[in-house]
Amino acid sequence: MTTADAPTTVLDLAALVAEQTRAGFTPDRHGRPSRPVRRQRAHAARDARRHGLVAAGVATVALAAVTPAALQLPTDDTTLELSAQGTSLAPAPAAAAPAVAPVVVNASSADPATADLFKAGDRARRQAEQAEQAAAAERTRAAEAERARAEADRAARVTSCGADSSYGGVADSVQTVGNALECVFPGHDVLGVGSRGNASDHPDGYALDFMTTDGDAIADCVMSNADALGVSYAIWDQRINTGSGWKGMEDRGGATANHEDHVHISFERGADPDVSALRSCT
Known about the structure:
Elements: H1 10-22, H2 35-70, E1 80-82, E2 87-89, H3 112-159, H4 172-184, E3 189-191, E4 207-211, H5 216-224, H6 226-229, E5 231-235, E6 239-241, E7 246-248, E8 262-267
Antiparallel strand pairs: 1-2, 3-4, 4-8, 5-6, 5-8, 6-7
């Protein structure tokens, strides 16, 4: 058999086996290729290894030539550990995330258009504040005017209702208070000067009787403003009040004698009454 050049690749070896088979190199009784075939395969494997080592060397030289220019390995704070089991690279400490500073817009450093917007906003805010202040002042004036009108109405009800009775010739101060009380509590018969069988202020014109069976409001109003009206005392519903609260009286035998059908009001001599105090009773 003519020996050809040793095969250098697996494909070449396969082609050689096929050629030898065609040439009569058949497997032995154990199913293995004949000795010449096995020897030829061993030569082919050795040549393949030789060619592989040569190629690896060429690749190593080429890598060494380009590595200095293309690959810069770190030399500080980084450890490369190469071993047969694997390759490990100790990572560098993670850098802290940068703090995000708040964005502050300064109108003085902004562009003219932005500065104009800021100025317009400030102007609108000032105008709104001024408008609210003006509205608040107007509401205050309106409330004060309403209070003044209500006060005038109460004063008119006290002094301008048209009551002008003299009550039989009572003192002027008593007439003034009587007329004001009629404005506040209209619809009652009012008696003034009259004779009485016991000690009384009626004969001298310093007492008034408001005829009513529902005199609580009149009696309380008079005594609540006793100093302003010049009232010395009042009697109502078998009770008397001289300025220190209501106190019960003895039974005098009848509704009129017990003041159950009228409110009796006695006045100080020489008083100068201020009937405007009766506005609190309206």
